[in-house]
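Thread: quick sanity check before group meeting

JM: Hey all, I'm pulling together slides for Thursday and realized we never actually wrote out the predicted structure for the chain we discussed last week. Dropping the sequence here so it's in one place. If anyone has concerns about the input, flag it before I start.
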Amino acid sequence: MSPELITEHFIIRALAPNDLLAFSQYRSMPEVAQYQSWGEDYSLSDAKALLEGTDYAHFGQEGHWYQLAIADRESEVLFGDLAVHFIDEQQVEIGFTLAPQYQGKGIACEAVNTLLAYLFNTLNKHRVIAITDTKNRPSCQLVERLNFRKEAHFMQNVFFKGAWGDEYVYAMLKSEY
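JM (edit): ok, ran it. Output follows.
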């Protein structure tokens, strides 16, 4: 079962059908899609397919990705989402996406920190990684602010949206959290 994590300002929970319109709208914005695996043509149908393909009943299953909504505690307005990939029994990859109007307000920092506490303290995971495009400075700054270590700089390792791109791999061990 997927977690329901409550912070001072919002709730982190499984993505729900009533989130999908806002989810698809911010994912289709050029400034949001720029460094993501999807394109500006992300649609409501894409969001529905993503939700239908996610088995939250088996949250934490190795090899699977899960999207968690970051929503206002009271109004349920969707701010963005967290991506969680259970690589193996002890390692997790995370990602984060916020709608532009909610960026720069500390929401991603609070959400990722809350997720890290859950992964390390509740699920007892050993290592969490985040992979970012080297040009995505706000994402790099966020994970660095949260004390992730930069472990790798892959040069032209991914052919992405018509060009070769570089990526940073950041990581944090449970003992470093």
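AS: nice. The radius of gyration is 15 Å. The chain has a mean pLDDT of 96.
JM: adding both to the slides.
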